[in-house]
Amino acid sequence: MRILVVEDSKVVSRILQHLIAQELDCEVDFAVDLASAKLLLEQKEYFLAITDLNLPDAQEGEIVRLVLSKQTPCIVLTGSLDSEQRKRLLQLGIVDYILKENRFSYEYVVRLVHRLQRNKNVKVLVADDSMVSRKFVRSLLEQHLYQVIEADDGNSAWDILQNQPDVQLLITDYNMPGLDGFGLILKVREKFSREELAIIGLSSDSDESLSARFIKNGANDFLQKPFVHEEFHCRVLNTLDSLDMLRKLWDQANLDYLTGVYNRRYFFGLFEEQIKQIKQKQGTLTVALLDIDFFKRVNDTHGHDVGDEVLVEFSARLKHFFGQHFTVSRFGGEEFTVAFKGLNEEKVFALMDKFRSQLEMKPIATSKGDMFITVSTGIAGLADDSLDELIQRADKALYDAKESGRNLVCIEA
Ligand SMILES: Nc1nc2c(ncn2[C@@H]2O[C@H](COP(=O)(O)OP(=O)(O)OP(=O)(O)O)[C@@H](O)[C@H]2O)c(=O)[nH]1
């Protein structure tokens, strides 16, 4: 990714250069006037440009028109801006303008660029029965490079969310025929948690209690129509930053830091809950407990880092083999579980034995060369006991597999 900075002040260029190098993974070209910016824009393709408004050879903001004529998103960084200039720039379709006021201004620029990089992969659903309003919101979102999907009422928004669960932000109007904004949010929050989907409510209704009601019903934020560009973008930016933060927190709490598979805490949280339903419906749950054989030798012979590499690749294989349909977790050290809902012990045995033999045949590539490893596995099916007791029974079967020579799968006796 390549960024163009057009700035005649050496101090500002240096600050930007420093912050970009620290925070962003991209290449940067600097131009000090319109002429050199023109040359660069003819030679190279830019993800976006950050430009000063007044340059030594172009005092009237010509640089903005030039950048936009190349279909390059443009952020204006300027010392001052009157309300006429502001209006004109927004109408031209710049991403945003930032006043050079203090260090937070430059940090905001970098945060914005960072966000724009990610926005290309962020889907936003806009639900509004007014086409004019929908198109306006779409145009604002597209200036910030989001992928935009439109729905003209609450019910079609709900259908889209069912089919496209990777939508990260829903922007919904209040008054819509059929299912209104509140009805939609209530339905959505039954299925999508705050880590999965963020919601911003919109309304032109003058009822002043609407914003609080939207938020109490599960929206993250609310915007009163008509709104100005800047407020819209700041709120979307903040909402998505909070979503990212929540997701990071969720990952830290539920995923194993080394291998990225679920951790013990997630496993117990999920199955303590599910076990009740499985028992009520007389369903089946089988757990396999896996332990890499002689793993201590890998660490002792090649070092802890190589041990880590083996754990990472072992988890990746486990996830690849089972992860699409079943729950793979790391319980700690070199011990893992796979939980199989709806499969009995015999079926799980067949799957685990296939995994075991594939692992034995294909060495793991590490920085110290290829390594053959094997795994022992114990299997137990849910009976009339607790999750802890189920794990203990799988552990006993694992002990049998180790005692019987390792590289084996055993079902509880
Ligand atoms: N590299 C690495 N090693 C770990 C990690 N967690 C635990 N271990 C090591 O895993 C090893 C487990 O060894 P043991 O429990 O003695 O078992 P083993 O050598 O696999 O032998 P068996 O299980 O009896 O086949 C120990 O050396 C731990 O230090 C980790 O996150 N990274």
From TrEMBL:
Residue span(s) of domain GGDEF: 283-413
Q: Report the top EC class in one word.
A: transferase
Please report a single Pfam family linked to this protein: GGDEF
Domain Response regulatory, chain residue ranges per copy: 2-115, 123-240
PTM 4-aspartylphosphate: list the residues: 52, 173
Keyword line: Phosphoprotein
Listed under GO cellular component are:
plasma membrane
Q: Which PROSITE patterns does this entry report, sorted A to Z?
A: GGDEF, RESPONSE_REGULATORY
Example GO molecular function = diguanylate cyclase activity
Reported cofactor(s)? Mg(2+)
**What does the record give as EC number?**
2.7.7.65
Q: Which GO terms describe its biological process?
A: cell adhesion involved in single-species biofilm formation; negative regulation of bacterial-type flagellum-dependent cell motility; phosphorelay signal transduction system
Give the reaction(s) catalysed: 2 GTP = 3',3'-c-di-GMP + 2 diphosphate
Entries under SUPFAM superfamilies matching the protein? CheY-like (SSF52172), Nucleotide cyclase (SSF55073)
Please name the NCBIfam families in this protein's record: GGDEF
Q: What is this protein called?
A: diguanylate cyclase
Q: Which organism is it from?
A: Shewanella violacea (strain JCM 10179 / CIP 106290 / LMG 19151 / DSS12)
